[in-house]
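User: Please run a holo structure prediction.
Assistant: Happy to. Please share the sequence and the ligand.
User: Here you go; the ligand is EPZ.
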Amino acid sequence: MERFVISGPSKLYGNVKISGMKNAAVAVIFGTIAVNDECVIDNLPNISDVNLSLELLKNMGAVVEKLGETKYRIDTRHISTIMAPVEEAGKMRASYYIAGASLARFGVCKVGLPGGCDFGERPIDQHVKAFEAMGAKVRIDEGYIDASAVGGMKAANIYFDCVTVGGTINAILAAVRSDGVTVIDNAAREPHIVDLANFLNFCGADITGAGTDTIKIKGNKQLHGCEYTIIPDMIEAGTFIIAAAATSSRVLIENIIPKHLESMTSKLSETGIVFEEGDDTLLVKSNVSELRPVNIKTLPYPGFPTDMNPQTAVLLCSIPGVSRINETIFSDRFRYVNELRRMGASIDIENSIATFNGGQRLKAANVRAVDLRAGAAMVLAGLVAEGTTSIEDIFYIERGYDNIVEKLSSLGAAIKKISIEDFT
Ligand code: EPZ
């Protein structure tokens, strides 16, 4: 087993470059199945969710060639199976995009049900609703999404019962080669949905409205390959915002799209954190003892991201006074709270609201990453806590953060990855 070991409290200083966005990368990688040609994708982060996605593609018969640090050539013309085994697909959430892309290209799919972070019920009924609206017969059977559409997917009008990122992405993928115009209403608006639509439009698709709650997809069976660069990861950037703010540091965050961060910076500036925005940079300055408490509600984009809940909690533990987070997306997103309590945090949970009695210094402890963003929060807690914190189950963190140890070390943090044998 490997662990992160962090000595705190840390002061950070300097610049950090944000990597490509995990949740855009996995959508585009599986989107190449629907494109059925050679694509060159750049700015792919070196994280296990991306590496697993590329492995899944290769196991289906795609040719994947690494052209550079973050650049891959992906050729899906010779895919020989529509099957993605549950043993592999179950290791991540986004594997279910294989279903939408395969239905678009082959009119059939057999994909193992997805895994991913466990923070409560994560149904896929809206994905099924979209596929069935487009004419597919869908069975969830023996751990698989087993679907087929005789004569191929048909254009349809889809109205989602709830705002779903994955459902919106899967509906776009399923519709991209169908005859006619598919309209998705109550669509999710996240930047990674816009990134997928841009990629597919570079391949000859005709998708309009991505980033709004109504998306139109005019199907096109003649898609072709393209060269595409993935957008920067807004949640990684948000994680470094909290790292800087919670440690009273001054950090320049580079390679970002400021607009994507507004859902966070507009709310976090209420605490008194100073942000200076450049074209593709954000300077973060803070003195945490002078920050003001704040009330946050997580919402679909452009609201405050649920994926920033755990990281922001570490900041709220450090800001003197009473702050709150109202989590409206996932029923069990607060699993990280018990790990923070082990470090002396004073947090009360009632229904979907966590109340933080902030201002006390966290104390180092042995803690676990209970999911991806909870794991990132443990890293931030180790930076602010007094003493040496060790974090287990760091595979969660490495699913979504590219070189987090090197990036934090370059900012002056005392963090290292060790294997369990030499942990004393
Ligand atoms: C995506 O998950 C992200 N994962 C998650 O990021 C992120 O937390 C989430 O969107 C919300 O932004 C990827 O993009 C790979 P949803 P997804 O479908 O698509 C309900 C991370 O840390 N729902 O938008 O699974 C669902 O229960 C990960 O990078 C249904 O009811 O999220 C939830 O309450 C963690 N039926 C809400 O919608 C459905 O068919 C939002 O889920 C689908 C979803």
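The longest strand covers residues 2-8.
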